[in-house]
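User: Please fill in residues for this 145-position structure.
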């Protein structure tokens, strides 16, 4: 299972009343967290998300959240309003419309998904490096599921 599928699965688990298939969910997640404009080729750019959270333009709160998600301890929760700030309301509105959700519901869902997704793709404070990159992460996730 790759990170895109994991993200789509987590997103699907938290969305209520949504009948979107895994590919649709992965596409939307790619648009929110992807490396390109449509998410199709960029996959999930979790490093970009973490970099944004720990960069100089964000508050110390985002840095603390990112560190807790990357570390091996408990994940600190992110509030839906913080998700909106981090991802951007325009992107969030577009994704919500694609999924037939309202923006607030999607922000609430992402507040549950993002910590888990970053946590499951990191260990010891860095994304993927500790498990042998993408292939190592995929092998690790196969064992979990």
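Assistant: Residues filled in for all 145 positions:
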């Amino acid at each position: 299972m790759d990170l895109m599928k994991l993200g789509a699965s987590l997103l699907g688990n938290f969305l209520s009343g949504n009948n979107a298939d895994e590919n649709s969910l992965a596409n939307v997640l790619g648009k929110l967290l992807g490396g390109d404009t449509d998410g199709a080729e960029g996959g999930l750019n979790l490093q970009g998300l973490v970099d944004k959270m720990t960069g100089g333009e964000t508050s110390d709160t985002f840095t603390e959240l990112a560190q807790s998600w990357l570390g091996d301890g408990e994940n600190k929760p992110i509030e839906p309003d913080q998700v909106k700030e981090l991802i951007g309301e325009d992107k969030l509105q577009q994704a919500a419309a694609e999924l037939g959700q309202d923006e607030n519901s999607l922000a609430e869902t992402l507040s549950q998904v993002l910590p888990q997704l970053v946590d499951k793709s990191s260990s010891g404070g860095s994304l993927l490096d500790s498990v042998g990159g993408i292939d190592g992460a995929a092998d690790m996730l196969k064992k979990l599921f």
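For context: The two ends are 9 Å apart (CA to CA).
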